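User: tokens in, sequence out, please.
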């Protein structure tokens, strides 16, 4: 991940995608390279911030949103859905331990009312033995600076193209998007999904839908 960021910083790659492709092609012998979704996301974030930074040493204003609901879509049919434990974390930029903001048990829908800002992570575990044991299901990491309700998440192909063409990314939403507050994370935006090859609990079309309200809408 750091090598890919260095490629971007030194101008050895024109974009985050080019940096990851070059690293995977030239620096890795097993041809696997940088494959962890959240690590690739960091590289894209870094490239976007370098393109949009207001100046050296100046901080980026991260907007706040209120998460109202999380819904799992396109889950397996014909089987009983697993009982899941959701945990919502705030990740601190200074490297200090992540902070637990919320946790609850549920199945396909989770009602929340929590304000989020900055780096946020959702972890989903499958509960076993009356919830006493658990197994990793999937997790999603994002930063609210790149959150645009009403669209697919930032790592979709169209959004990556916007980032890499240095268009301004804003977390403000227009009037149509404010009406829905809908953000969709595809399976390709999630970590831990590679563990699912054997049992295929997460179909290719699996999605996590998040409904949010802006801080001035609550």
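Assistant: Sequence out:
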């Amino acid at each position: 991940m750091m090598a890919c960021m260095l490629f971007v910083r030194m101008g050895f790659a024109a974009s985050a995608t080019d940096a990851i492709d070059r690293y995977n092609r030239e620096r890795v012998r097993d041809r696997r390279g940088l494959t962890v979704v959240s690590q690739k996301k960091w590289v894209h974030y870094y490239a976007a911030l370098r393109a949009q930074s207001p100046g050296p040493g100046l901080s980026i204003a991260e907007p706040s949103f209120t998460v109202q609901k999380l819904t799992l879509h396109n889950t397996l049919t014909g089987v009983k859905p697993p009982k899941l434990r959701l945990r919502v974390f705030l990740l601190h930029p200074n490297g200090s331990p992540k902070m637990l903001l919320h946790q609850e048990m549920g199945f396909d829908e989770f009602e929340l009312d929590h304000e989020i800002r900055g780096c946020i992570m959702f972890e989903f575990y499958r509960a076993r033995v009356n919830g006493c044991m658990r197994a990793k299901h999937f997790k999603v990491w994002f930063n609210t600076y790149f959150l645009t309700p009403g669209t697919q998440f930032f790592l979709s192909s169209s959004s990556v193209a916007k980032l890499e063409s240095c268009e301004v990314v804003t977390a403000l939403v227009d009037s149509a998007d404010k009406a829905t507050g809908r953000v969709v994370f595809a399976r390709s935006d999630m970590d831990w999904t590679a563990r699912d090859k054997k049992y295929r609990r997460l179909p290719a079309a699996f999605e996590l839908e998040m409904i949010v309200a802006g801080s001035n809408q609550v």
